[in-house]
Amino acid sequence: MVTVGVIIKPHGLKGEVIVKPTTDFIDQRYASGVSLRLSGSVDHQQLTVAEARPHGGRLIVQFEELNDRSEAERVRDFELVINQQDMIALDEGEFYRFELIGLKVYGISGEFVGEIKDVHPLGDKAVLEIVSEQHGTVDFPADYQLIDSVDRDAGKIIVHLPRGWEKLARSKKRK
Q1: 3, 38, 66, 140: least CB-packed within 10 angstroms?
Q2: Contact 119, 171 (CB under 8 A)
Q3: What architecture is the 97-168 domain classified under in CATH?
Q4: Are 116 and 127 in contact (CB under 8 A)?
């Protein structure tokens, strides 16, 4: 299962919810009639999008199965997920966030840098959050000019380390 959003809280009295989308394919995933599942619910309850509209970087979503505020409250903080086989195919050299998390990061000359803990959007680019035993947490630009290769099967990514890259660290070395 792949997370495509998180239900933040109810909105209004008619069962609408505020959703923080975690997909680049918002229009496709939250189109009327699309079914999503609730992760962590006992039966992986399925919800069908009736309507979705933007709201301050998030979405207000009405699901067909939620008719009032108490039903919307019941799904607060649940993740909305899809099956991995239902994912939209990406172009060559593009990756889903979950495919990068956990990859070991190496410099072009073979030195171990750390492990990707998370990937954060930054405008139309992304930042790799790398945990390094030596340097702490480093926010590394996911720029095609700095990434030499990504080998998911081998569990690694090779990057060009610009001079002073370790100054990107935002926390001290872990103890």
Answers
A1: 3
A2: no
A3: Roll (2.30)
A4: no
